[in-house]
Amino acid sequence: MATESSSNTFTSEFRKISGPLGADLTRVDSSPKFTLGQTCFDTRGGEYIYLKGVASVAEGSWVSYCIAGDITAAVALATTTTIDLRDPLAVACAAVVASSYGWFQIRGICYASYLVSMALGNTVQSTATAGSMDDANTTTIYGVKCFETEGGTGTDTLRTWIQYPQAGIAL
């Protein structure tokens, strides 16, 4: 059996979906195959939501989304500006770009994008870099725990636990 990593975490080998029928976390759809906002679960306790994509999203990118009103146009790459709207956050399971549809994780273990200075055990914070988080002193993200330290350059996807992440509001 392969070892789980950021490059294969959303494959069926590690994420056995318990429903709905036909859900594939790594598939990007050109038209909606499920109801927007529909959730699915994996056998490890992960939970996912089906959303419309957004430009420049990559696997592991943080997005904010709206669960009220017009969910079809409500996804944005998470930045300090977009998350201050207090919408929930999710992590992209694939490169679900604009005009496409796919699954985003909202609960469980995932690999999410962080900037170079993220340190193990620190509070997760928003950044000005679209789709990435850090531990700099900006807006606190609740419902998130990063299990690794980013020691390289640029951004990296780190093993993370999420529980319906949201900015600025402790649940």
How far apart the termini lie comes to 37 Å
| Strands, total number | 9
What's the alpha carbon Rg, rounded to whole Å?
A: 15 Å
User: Average pLDDT across residues?
Assistant: 83
Q: Sheet bearing the most strands, described?
A: 9 strands, antiparallel
Set down the secondary structure blueprint.
Layout: E1 17-19, E2 39-42, E3 47-52, E4 62-64, E5 76-77, H1 80-83, E6 89-92, E7 101-115, E8 141-146, E9 155-167
Antiparallel strand pairs: 1-2, 2-3, 3-7, 4-5, 4-6, 6-7, 7-9, 8-9
How would you briefly describe this protein structure?
The protein has 171 residues and is mainly β.
Question: What are the defining features of this structure?
Answer:
mainly beta; single chain; 171 residues; 9-stranded antiparallel β-sheet; globular; 1 helix; 33% strand; 2% helix
